[in-house]
Write a structure and sequence with these properties.
Blueprint lengths: L4 E9 L17 H11 L4 E5 H6 L11 E6 L18 E5 L10 E5 L2 H10 L4 E4 L3 H9 L5 E7 L26 E9 L4 E8 L2
Parallel strand pairs: 1-6, 1-7, 2-3, 2-6, 3-4, 4-5
Antiparallel strand pairs: 7-9, 8-9
Bound molecules: NADP nicotinamide-adenine-dinucleotide phosphate.
The site of NADP nicotinamide-adenine-dinucleotide phosphate (NAP) has 30 residues, from β1, β2, α2, β3 and α4.
Keywords: NADP, Oxidoreductase
Pathway: Cofactor biosynthesis; riboflavin biosynthesis
GO molecular function: 5-amino-6-(5-phosphoribosylamino)uracil reductase activity
């Protein structure tokens, strides 16, 4: 499958969760983590999130260099009043895999599968796609064996608990078709915040 180089970035609690409930807002990690989040966006030609994360975190997906702002949805229930559609930034590309192809002024609408969307992004020049969640979308990428880099902030200062609380591969459920193997390329503990920045690259 032709696709861009894909990286993901998540903050993870001591019990491996990415949020306490399905719709917890962001902001539970340090300012340094937020700075790293912005740093990791640099160099990406496109940012990608699931509609759940877009809604929960009220994201505008603004980043230096104005990368494409891509959001995926099955049902396509995008709110035209969402801040994403009213903020300056990179071109907006929405993927709707199952619902009707609605029109949102200023946004390019794609239909079809996530795999075909990745091919279309490649065709318009996206070499590096950076995904900021959520778990449901990252699980789909992992199931497609389409994650090349994993960036984590280990935020062991917090325990979320919760049977329904998602991890970076979504809510606990079926095993992935195969395990992925990654090697550590960055280990950056931050004692002052109780967090640790980690980066992994897919093993050749
Ligand atoms: N700790 C962290 O670093 C971090 C990072 C990101 C998010 N989060 C948290 O995670 C929560 C949001 O997660 P979420 O469970 O809602 O997951 P999500 O993946 O952001 O959103 C799920 C929605 O995205 C769409 N989607 C996901 N995979 C898709 C696919 N393969 N094809 C088409 N559409 C797809 C669907 O949208 P439709 O419903 O429109 O069909 C689905 O309902 C929030 O609480 C957020 O704060 C935490």
């Amino acid at each position: 499958m032709t696709r861009p180089h894909i990286s993901i970035n998540f903050a993870v609690s001591a019990d491996g969760k990415i949020s306490s409930v399905a719709r917890r807002p962001s902001g539970w990690t340090s300012e340094e983590d937020h700075a790293r989040l912005l740093q990791l966006r640099k160099g990406a030609d496109a940012l990608l999130v699931g509609r759940g994360t877009l809604e929960a975190d009220r994201m505008t997906m603004k980043a230096s260099g104005d990368p494409l702002r891509c959001v995926v949805s099955r049902g396509g229930k995008f709110d035209p009043a969402h801040p994403l559609f009213h903020s300056a930034g990179g071109p907006i590309h929405l993927l709707i895999t199952e619902g009707p192809a609605l029109e949102i002024p200023g946004a390019t609408i794609h239909t079809g599968s996530l795999a075909s969307f990745l091919q279309e992004l490649t065709a318009i020049g996206v070499k590096h796609l950076h995904c900021e969640g959520g778990g449901e979308l990252a699980r789909e990428l992992a199931a497609m064996d389409a994650i090349d880099e994993i960036h984590l902030t280990w935020a062991g200062h917090t325990i979320f608990g919760g049977r329904a609380a998602p991890t970076i591969s979504g809510v606990p459920g079926e095993f992935l078709p195969a395990s992925g193997a990654y090697e550590l390329i960055e280990f950056d503990p931050r004692p002052e915040t109780g967090e640790c920045f980690l980066s992994y690259r897919r093993k050749a």
